Amino acid sequence: MKVLFVINNLHSKGNGLCAAVKRNIRELEKRGIEVRVLSGRNKTGKRQPEYELDDLTIIGFDSIISKQGYQFSKTNKKVIKEALEWADVVHIEEPFNIQIATTRLAKKMNVPCVATYHLHPENLLASVKLSWSKLINGGLMLAWRNLVFNKCKIVHAPTKNVEDRLRKWKYKAEIRTFSNGLALDDLMHVEKEYIKKEMSKD
Predict the structure, then answer these.
(1) Domain formed by 2-201, architecture
(2) Residues 180-187: contacts with CB within 8 Å, 24+ apart?
(3) What's the Cα-to-Cα distance from 53 to each of 8, 77, 111, 149, rounded to whole Å?
């Protein structure tokens, strides 16, 4: 199986979403599943995405976006089409412009999409002091539902709270709830380090 992950920038620093996606990619590859990424470039020069997008500059908001450990990418339909021609399944990680374009084209090309719901509108709007606005938050939930998540076969909810919220907003995709926390190997490593630290106190 060939799985395409779609994320604005997989290598943004200090971004928990990116950490979760990298972990998922690593675990899939360990199981022999072929994975490629549609994303902005990696500025550290390490693994670059197979399908590379240019950075998107949002004048007046770049410093805020950067402080949040985030980087948006420009939509490039030619690159998206090339990526979809390769993929058996597309995994959508955000509900923004490149994901809107990807799910729209994937439907035309008959490539199935799944998604993970990582981000509430309030998380996004907190940086510009608008997390209190029910009108804007509600508008984003509807836009994300109609333009991205309802075009997916399955939406992964990392918690029961997220599942309940998606059902409240009548998301039509099948919702499956399970944690996107630490993989077993990582969990064992953390536990060993914790035990070692505790023993050194004695």
Answers:
(1) 3-Layer(aba) Sandwich (3.40)
(2) 180/20, 180/23, 180/24, 180/116, 180/156, 182/23, 183/23, 183/26, 183/27, 186/23
(3) 8, 10, 20, 22
pTM: predicted TM-score of the whole model, two decimal places = 0.85
Task: Provide the b/e sequence for 79-103 (b: ≥16 CB within 10 Å).
Answer: bbbebbeebebbbbbbbbebbbbbb
Structure tokens at 14: 């200090």
Q: For residue 38, which of 6, 76, 13, 75 has the smallest C-alpha distance? A: 6
Helices (H) and strands (E) in the chain, counts: 8, 7
pLDDT tens series, the chain, 202 aa: 999 999 999 988 767 888 899 999 999 999 999 999 999 998 877 788 999 999 998 766 677 777 666 788 999 999 999 999 999 999 999 999 999 999 999 999 999 999 999 988 887 766 767 667 788 889 999 999 999 999 999 999 999 999 999 999 999 999 999 887 655 555 455 445 544 554 555 4
Q: What are the boundaries of each domain within the chain?
A: 2-201
The Cα 16–Cα 140 span in angstroms is 21
CB 150 within 8 A of CB 141: no
